[in-house]
Design a protein that fits this description.
InterPro entries: MdtP/NodT-like (IPR010131), OMP_efflux (IPR003423). By secondary structure, the protein is of the alpha+beta class. The protein is built from eight helices and four strands. A hairpin with a 5-residue loop joins strand 3 and strand 4.
Length: about 425
C-alpha cells in the first residue's frame, strides 16, 4: 500500500463513497468462493435451509409434480343421485301420492389402462421437474463461480491501479527534484504529473468496476450489500475426467427426461380414447303403493366423433420435438466440452508463461530502468515505457487467470451428473 498525497484526497473520497455508502462505517465481510456458494444455497446440505428464490422456485415445482403423482394414483369418486318423479302433476299425479323416489350410487370404471398411464405420465413429469431443479442448482453454481471470478479480477485490477498510482507518485516526485536541480527539462515534470493524473482516474474507474462486480455477485443470494472479495483467484479445478460420455451429463439427462415424459403423455392420451362405462345400482320407492324395487344400470359414452385424436396427434408431435432436442443437447454438449477444455488448457498455458517468464523479466527491466532514472542515466520516457510494458503483462495475467477459472467453472457445470 502507499501513502495518499493531498492531491488524491478528493479522488479517494469518491472511492470511499462508492465502496461503503454514506450510511456504512464498516466494510462488509470478506467472502471466499466457498462462502459465496453456501450463501447462494448451492452448497447447502439441507434443502429446508435454502431460502434463495432462484432455488426455491424449481424445488417448489418439484414438490408440485410429486403431489400430482399422488393425485394420479387416486381412482374416480363414486357418485350418488336422488331422483324424485311424478311430483305435483295433474289428475292421478297430483300432490305426492304417486311420487317415486330413486336413490342410486354410480361408479365410473376406468378402462384401457388409464390409471397406470396417468400415473406413468405424472411420474415422468416429477422426474423431469427434479432434474430441472438439479440443473438450476448447477447453473447457479456456475454463475456464482463466474461472478466471483469477475469480482476477484476486478479486485486484482484495483491493486494494479493502486500500484500504478504509487509508482507514478514516486516518478512525479523524482521528476520534480530533477527539474529543480536542472537535470531534467520542465516538460519531464509535466509529463510525470499527467501520467499521475491518468493513473488516479484509472484507479477510480477500477474501484467502480470492482463495486459493480461485487454487487452483481451479491444479487445471486439477494444480499443487501456488496461483499469484499480478495484479489486472489480461487483454485477452481476442472474434473479429472473431462466427460467422455456425453449422454450422462445433467443437461442431456434433462433432455432425455423430456422425451420420456412426452412418450408417457402419448400413452395417457391414447388411453383416453377408450370410453369409461359407469355402473350404477339403487333402489326405487313407489309412493302410491309403498313398494320398493332395486335398479341396476350401465351407461357408456359413444365415441363417434371425439376419440381424442387431436390430443394424441399433439402428444406425438411433442415427442418428435423432444427427441430432436435430445439429439441437439448431446451434440451441443460434446462441442461445449471440447471448447471449454481448449479454453482451459490455453489459458493455463498463458498463465504459466506470463507468471513464470514474462512478468519476472518485465519486473527486472523496470527495476533497472528506475535505478538508472534515479541516477540520471535514463530519461523519464524510458521508465514510463518499461512500467507500461510491465503493467500490460500484469493485466494480461489477470485476464488469463480469469479465463482459466471461467473455463474450469464451465467444465464443472458440464460434468454435473
Amino acid at each position: 500500500m502507499f501513502a495518499i498525497s493531498w492531491r488524491a484526497a478528493p479522488v479517494w473520497g469518491l472511492i470511499l463513497a462508492l465502496s461503503t455508502g454514506p450510511a456504512s462505517a464498516q466494510d462488509p465481510r470478506v467472502v471466499t468462493l466457498d462462502d459465496a456458494l453456501e450463501l447462494s444455497g448451492v452448497a447447502a446440505e439441507v434443502d429446508t435451509a435454502i431460502t434463495n428464490p432462484r432455488l426455491v422456485g424449481p424445488r417448489a415445482e418439484t414438490d408440485a409434480a410429486v403431489a400430482l403423482v399422488d393425485q394420479a394414483r387416486l381412482s374416480p369418486n363414486p357418485e350418488i343421485s336422488l331422483d324424485v318423479e311424478n311430483v305435483a302433476g295433474s289428475g292421478a299425479f297430483s300432490g305426492l301420492q304417486s311420487t317415486e323416489y330413486t336413490l342410486s350410487v354410480g361408479q365410473r370404471l376406468e378402462l384401457g389402462g388409464k390409471r397406470s398411464a396417468r400415473i406413468g405420465a405424472a411420474e415422468a413429469q416429477a422426474d423431469l421437474a427434479s432434474l430441472r431443479a438439479d440443473l438450476t442448482t448447477v447453473e447457479l453454481g456456475q454463475l456464482v463461480r463466474e461472478r466471483y471470478l469477475a469480482a476477484a479480477a476486478a479486485a486484482a485490477r484495483v491493486e494494479l491501479a493502486e500500484d500504478v498510482v504509487a509508482r507514478n507518485e514516486e516518478l512525479a516526485r523524482i521528476a520534480g527534484v530533477l527539474v529543480e536541480v536542472g537535470r531534467e527539462p520542465p516538460l519531464r515534470a509535466l509529463r510525470a504529473d499527467a501520467a499521475l493524473a491518468e493513473a488516479r482516474a484509472s484507479l477510480v474507474e477500477a474501484e467502480a468496476e470492482s463495486l459493480s462486480a461485487r454487487a452483481a455477485l451479491a444479487t445471486l443470494w439477494a444480499g443487501d450489500e456488496a461483499p469484499l472479495v480478495p484479489a486472489e483467484f480461487p483454485d477452481i479445478l476442472p474434473p479429472p475426467s473431462l466427460l467422455s460420455e456425453a449422454q450422462e451429463s445433467l443437461t442431456y439427462r434433462v433432455a432425455r427426461a423430456e422425451s420420456t415424459a412426452a412418450a408417457a403423455e402419448i400413452e395417457r392420451q391414447r388411453s383416453l380414447r377408450i370410453p369409461d362405462p359407469t355402473v350404477s345400482a339403487g333402489v326405487r320407492r313407489f309412493g302410491e303403493s309403498g313398494d320398493n324395487a332395486f335398479l341396476v344400470g350401465v351407461s357408456i359414452p359413444l365415441p363417434f366423433r371425439d376419440r381424442n385424436q387431436g390430443n394424441i396427434a399433439a402428444a406425438e408431435a411433442r415427442l418428435r420435438a423432444a427427441n430432436a432436442r435430445e439429439a441437439v443437447a448431446r451434440a451441443d454438449y460434446e462441442q461445449a466440452v471440447a471448447t471449454a477444455r481448449a479454453r482451459y488448457l490455453g489459458a493455463e498455458a498463458r498463465v504459466e508463461t506470463l507468471s513464470q517468464t514474462s512478468l519476472p523479466q518485465a519486473e527486472e527491466a523496470l527495476r533497472l530502468v528506475r535505478i538508472g532514472y534515479r541516477n540520471g542515466r535514463f530519461p523519464l520516457i524510458e521508465v514510463l515505457a518499461a512500467a507500461e510494458a510491465r503493467d500490460t503483462i500484469r493485466e494480461a495475467l489477470i485476464a488469463a487467470r480469469e479465463q482459466r477459472g471461467l473455463a474450469a467453472a464451465e467444465l464443472i457445470g458440464l460434468a454435473a451428473q
